[in-house]
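Box 3.1 A note on notation
Throughout this textbook, protein chains are presented in two layers. The first layer is the amino acid sequence; the second is a token string describing backbone geometry. Keep the layers aligned when reading.
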Amino acid sequence: MIGGNPALDFVNTAAYWDSGDPEDRLGGPEGLGKWAALAGLLGEEDLALLEKEIAEDPATAEAAFEDAQALRATLWRIFSAIVRDGDVADADLELLDRSKLRAAGHCRLVRDETGFRRRCRDEAPALERAMRMIVEEAEDLLLNGRLDRLHLCGGETCDWLFIDTSKNGRRRWCDMATCGNEAKVKKFRKRKTKAA
């Protein structure tokens, strides 16, 4: 969870976007549910419901996962176009709107012991709830976020998206411990080779 926004973290559940054949790291509806719980989008009761939904109707759960994958690809195209100062396709914005409208009737704002949150009616499928929140996070980022701080990782093989929250706004890596360290090691080796 390095994106600074759940919608970006969701996009980052796939890798190698620029290859044209991104590698999915969720594996299916259950993996998506587990990720959504880690991201704070689903609770324990939602995971139990998801397990029940998968067991009772695996085809519907798989279709919801395929919809989620399509949404993830759409979000990648939108946010990577913004980072690269490219055009955001109207079709991608329309798909984002359709995703929001599909789940809109299921959720409402509630207050619990930890504060305010969105709560979806029990009859809403668990993955639909998670997707609704991802769409809302994406929309909030597009409308109110610091898009000037939206970046793609500078790692050689990494194309993860993140919001740069550093003071000077010059963060280059999704994570210094992985991509940043790898780049520094390569730079060091290159200098060492030139000196030899």
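The longest strand covers residues 107-112. The radius of gyration is 19 Å.
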